[in-house]
Structure formats: structure tokens, C-alpha cells
Design a protein that fits this description.
Layout: E1 2-3, E2 15-20, E3 28-31, E4 36-42, E5 45-50, E6 55-60, E7 65-66, E8 70-71, E9 76-81, E10 87-94, E11 98-106, E12 111-112, E13 116-117, E14 122-127, E15 133-140, E16 150-158, E17 163-164, E18 168-169, E19 174-179, E20 185-190, E21 195-200, E22 205-206, E23 210-211, E24 215-222, E25 225-231, E26 240-245, E27 250-251, E28 255-256, E29 261-267, E30 270-275, E31 280-287, E32 290-293, E33 297-298, E34 307-310, E35 324-327
Antiparallel strand pairs: 1-2, 2-3, 2-35, 4-5, 5-6, 6-7, 6-8, 9-10, 10-11, 11-12, 11-13, 14-15, 15-16, 16-17, 16-18, 19-20, 20-21, 21-22, 21-23, 24-25, 25-26, 26-27, 26-28, 29-30, 30-31, 31-32, 31-33, 34-35
Length: 351
Amino acid sequence: MSEIGAGATVGSASGLAIVPLAGGGPAATVRVGTFPDALAVAGQTAYVASYVDDSVTPVDLETGRAGRPIPAGPGPAAIAVAPDGRMAYVTDAGTSPLGHTVTPIDLATRRALPPIDVGAGPQGIAITPDGSTAYVADAGAIVSGQSGPIGHTVTPIDLATRRALPPIDVGNAPVAVAVSPDGHAAYVANANSGSVSPISVSTGRAGPAIAVPGAPQALALSGSTLYVALGRSGVAPGDSVVAIDLGTGRAGTPVGVGPTPTALAVHGSRVYVVCYGSSAVVPVTFVHGAAQVGRPIHVPDGPYAIALALVRVPRGRSAGASARVLAGHSSAGRAAPGRAPQGAQRARPKR
């Protein structure tokens, strides 16, 4: 789990917390770049995108050691790894001027390749299961220190040619994207519209938006259910997670989790929600339409992004270390630790 700092230190922390979820054992913290606001896990390696340092740090989850940072574009905001594990793609949100690129990274050589032009202020990114297309949320100027309009498009990228395709109109301030396991649809969190837009991969068009009771900040898919982390908005209380039945296209009853949910990850029927405002990860179990909130897992120093991984245990180490752990990641986007009038704004250090 990435740690960005809290209170007076917000945006200045540089930790990746590895927190056992089963089997006991203490949490381990690895030093990475400053403001680690996103990461992806591929095999036994976590790739941490650091917004302030314009870099991605690989971390060996077995040894808990960080490798040499990989230069990325300005203001990395999200990262996704291709299904074959060969490439990672990082959205370059920038600050001033506003970013408008995605940086491909060759994970074998750990080198950045020429950037791909997309819409302004790219945030969330997700890749189709066949590895052919990435979808990028063009959020526009939603980060503190940025100037310009709020975005309303998603840009597909042909990953074979590394060229952007025509943008797709969605709601206001799209910050997160998720792709269905069958690759037929993409879903976009429109933070300022209080909705999720479904996109048909085959037609490249968005369907009718699905209303949610808050400002959607992060998405996670499990089968035919889409889980949405909701921040507060001008018309809804937020600070909750809601399940959308994709068969009916309707959102269920929101479940309160704690202040400022910024990211989530799902495993089976359990959803782990990062609540920046309470320095905790809150597990929520959804079974037969009912939800049960579990005991929060305390994570100090500004938990922000999350992913689940299984870590192998080298010989001679405690068996407890083999437990499923929380690392950082939300290719689907995160919320802000501080919020300005726009529902999707994210408080980050100015450069």
C-alpha cells in the first residue's frame, strides 16, 4: 500500500507498506519515490509511480528491496501492466503545464519508451485482457496547481502501434477506468458527474451513464459486479463503497467505510477500501446482496493506493510472510486527500 503522508506531511511521504492480511507478521515499509500515488503488481514485483519524482520504482516483494527508479513523464498518476507482463503504461497528469501523455515502460530493460499523446490531465488507465487496447481517463485540470478545463473524454490507445484512437465522450472529470474480464466493456468513473459510464469496446461508444450516490473515485470489477469507491460531492455524502449490478445497470445501497476513500481492491466477495481520512483499510464482504464491514486495518502515514498480491517466502523466513498482502495500486484511479470545490480535485504538492 502506498503512503503519501498526512496532515502537514501530505504529499511528502515516500513509503510502500506491505501489510499481511493473513498469517500474522508485522507490516514492512519500503522507501520509494515521493508521493507514491499509484502502483501495479506483476508477479513478485510492484511498480510504484511517484507523482513528485516523475518516476516508477520497482520493488521486489520477496526481498522487500527497491530497485533503481525508472524515469517517467511529468506527474505520474496511474500505472497499468499489460497482461503478458512485458510492458507498463503510466499516465502523465503533470501539474503546470498540464500533462497529456502516457509513458510506456519496457519492464525487461526497465526503460521508458517515447510517450504517447492522449487527452489533457490523464489519470486512470486500464488495459483489455487481450493486451490490445488501453483506455485512459482524460480528467483535465483536476489536480491542485493545474490550470485549464475539466476533461470529459476517454482516449483508447492501440498498444500494437502505440497510437491514440479517437476520444470517447463520457461524464465530467473522468478519473478512473476498469475493463471487464471478457474485454467487451470499459467502465469510467465520472467524479464531477456522480456517475459511471459504460463503454462498448467493439463500437467505441459510451452508453447511458449509471448514477451513483457520490463522487466516484476508484473502480474494481469482480465478475458481473462493479465496485465503486465514493468520495463526497455537493449532492451526496459519499465516504462509502457501492456495488453496481452490471446485469441490471443499477447501483445498490452504499456502505459507509470511513472518510476519504481513495482506492479499492477486490478478492472474491471481499472488497478492501483504502480510507485516507482514517489511515485505514476497511474490508467489506458482499454476500447475497448484503454487506458486512470488517475491522479496519490501521496503516499510518497516509494510505492512498492498494493492490493484492501473493508473496513467495524464501527459505528460512517465517511462514507468516507468505500471506496475501496489501501493496499499492489502483489502475482505476484514486481520490484526493484534500478536496477543493471541484468534486474530483486532488490536493498534491505544487512544483
